[in-house]
Amino acid sequence: MAESSEGLGTVPEHERILQEIQSTDTACVGPTLRSVYDDQPNAHKKFMEKLDACIRNHDKEIEKMCNFHHQGFVDAITELLKVRTDAEKLKVQVTDTNRRFQDAGKEVIGHTEDIIRCRIQQRNITTVVEKLQLCLPVLEMYSKLKEQMSTKRYYSALKTMEQLENVYFPRVSQYRFCQLMIENLPKLREDIKEISMSDLKDFLESIRKHSDKIGETAMKQAQHQKTFSVSLQKQNDVKFGKNRYINNYRIPEEKNEVVLKQALEEEDENEEEVLTVQDLVDFSPVYRCLHIYSVLGDEETFENYYRKQRKKQARLVLQPQSSMHETVDGYRRYFTQIVGFFVVEDHILHVTQGLVTRAYTDELWNMALSKIIAVLRAHSSYCTDPDLVLELKNLIVIFADTLQGYGFPVNRLFDLLFEIRDQYNETLLKKWTGVFRDIFEEDNYSPIPIVNEEEYKSVISKFPFQDPDLEKQPFPKKFPMSQSVPHIYIQVKEFIYASLKFSESLHRSSTEIDDMLRKSTNLLLTRTLSGCLLNLIRKPHIGLTELVQIIINTTHLEQACKYLEDFITNITNISQETVHTTRLYGLSTFKDARHAAEGEIYTKLNQKIDEFVQLADYDWTMSEPDGRASGYLMDLINFLRSIFQVFTHLPGKVAQTACMSACQHLSTSLMRMLLDSELKQISMGAVQQFNLDVIQCELFASSEPVPGFQGDTLQLAFIDLRQLLDLFMVWDWSTYLADYGQPASKYLRVNPNTALILLEKMKDTSKKNNIFAQFRKNDRDKQKLIETVVKQLRSLVNGMSQHT
């Protein structure tokens, strides 16, 4: 009972707790649940049972309610599905309506903003118009001031400044731009002075750039004036009966009139096209600047500045380009710039008062003239082309004539031309060095063949050759000289013409011109032509035949020197009998060349002999000779015969000397071959073979290959070899040793040392090759004789060395 009553007591408590749980907030459930565990120990189990029963009751109620409302829920879902389609359509329509509404609103907003902006602009414009009506006259006047300054109307600009300060600025003084203008006016006044100076600087820069054009125009005018004067002088000479010669032809009177008429027509045409310095340069900046500085009381500053700047420009103009000497255009540009500079100064001198004085221009010209002379002296030394030097001379003449026309002294320039004349002659000599070299290279060094009278006259017209015997010979025939002779003669005359060109327009006398031509021609002959001949003679490819022809050529060139002197006389009209007339030195020049050619003949002939001797191929151990002379020696003798036949055109002494020198050199070469230290042994058979070769040499010498030798003079060249070989061939040692040192000795030319060397070579052969085996068998005394002779020869050699 107790337990049941106790259980009944807890049930209402559990229901209360469940009600509190269902009715209270979730956050307050904790204390309620705690009370379940605080009552009785097993009360929570009962509570759980009560809780489960309550849950089941609620589930039953929910189920009943769901069963009751299920059909309505289904119907509601069905209706909701139907509404969803309409809702989507409505959403699309609402979205479209919103978009159109937004677009319309944007346009309205834009127009509204435009209206607001326009209202603001309208208000601002009204305000600006009101202010501009007050400020515009000031701005217009200030703009006018700027325009006047930009157009360099400085006096008008100053008046405008006065109007602004007195009338316009007080009206708008409250504005900042007015204060800026007021502050700027003093600076503008100062700028007027600076701008005028800037214009002057521009003017100076302009005339610096156009100096060459100004100078070119002035030099052309001077050249045209000179041409006209020369033509007029020619006509006057004809009228007064003066003969004028050009290339030895008198100018007819009618031709002079035509020349003068053409010159006058050219002068008229040139006058129509003549440009003055005012046409090429605007001098107004100088006038304006000078006037402004004069008004401002600062004229001295302007003059000093102008002169200082012009002196700087003068130094720049006088400074040449490093490559000026390479072309005539470089010199022309240099001269035209200088002429342009001084033409401008001359114009300033005559149109202004005090800016440039005569003393100033004279000082400037003297400074420039010294610099010009130094520059021309230096750069002309680099010129290697005579045509360029000649054009430079013509430019200097035109340059001097032009400046002389403006009142500048130019005598020092003409003095400089005499220095350049020497340089011109040097360049001519260098050029003709190449000309002569080409002539020598193209020459075939054979007599000129001619097959008819026309060819004969053609050669005679080029070179003064006279030979009655050659004229009588029938065609075809040959001139003794080669093609280079007439070509050289023509080129010497061309050199004289080229040297003569430099004297034109220098106003020198005929005597001075004649002296110049003769001196330059002497240099051509003694230095240039002589040097080319010597170089030609020493060239390796020049053979003996060519050397012979060179000697013949120099002989004819030497004979032609008198015609060159007559040629110069005809040009200058100065007789050769005049006391101070310079003679041509061609005779010594060609004689020296001939001597050099002769020496080269001797040298080359010996070299050719050496070449043949090097072909020698002796078998120094042979037992018996071949019975005939060696092939190389016969070829050498045939070569010498053919060469000495060519020598018949040479002077007798030259041919004889060459022949004697050749024989002596051949004899020396053969002797050297026998005594060669590398040759260790020689057999008697080899000596006999060598003797056959020497016999052929003696036969050649006795055949008189060159006429003029007396007796056996030429054979004496081989006497040393002959006596040496006879001594060994005859084995005549007793006679040699007995007569040694006697003037009448049979073997006088045999040196003991030479005999000893050869004998030892034969002695070595007897040991190695048993050459003397028969002697030892047949005659043992002969071996003893050899040893005895060797001892005696050594004694003689030792005696000679002690005596020496």
Molecular structure report:
The chain has 28 helices and four strands. It is mostly helical. A two-stranded antiparallel ribbon has the order 1-2. It has a two-stranded antiparallel sheet with strand order 3-4. The longest helix is centred in the first third of the chain and has 108 residues, at 43-150. The termini are far apart.
Please summarize the sheet with the most strands: 2 strands, antiparallel
- Described by the principal axes of the CA atoms, the overall outline is flat
Low-confidence blocks of residues: 1-8, 237-264, 266-272, 769-776
Mean residue pLDDT: 81
Assign a percent range to the helix content: over 70%
Beta-strand segment tally: 4
Number of helices: 28
C-alpha Rg (nearest Å):
64 Å
Distance between the termini: 184 Å
Strand line-up across the major sheet: 1-2
Structural class: mainly alpha
What is the percentage of strand-forming residues?
Answer: under 5%
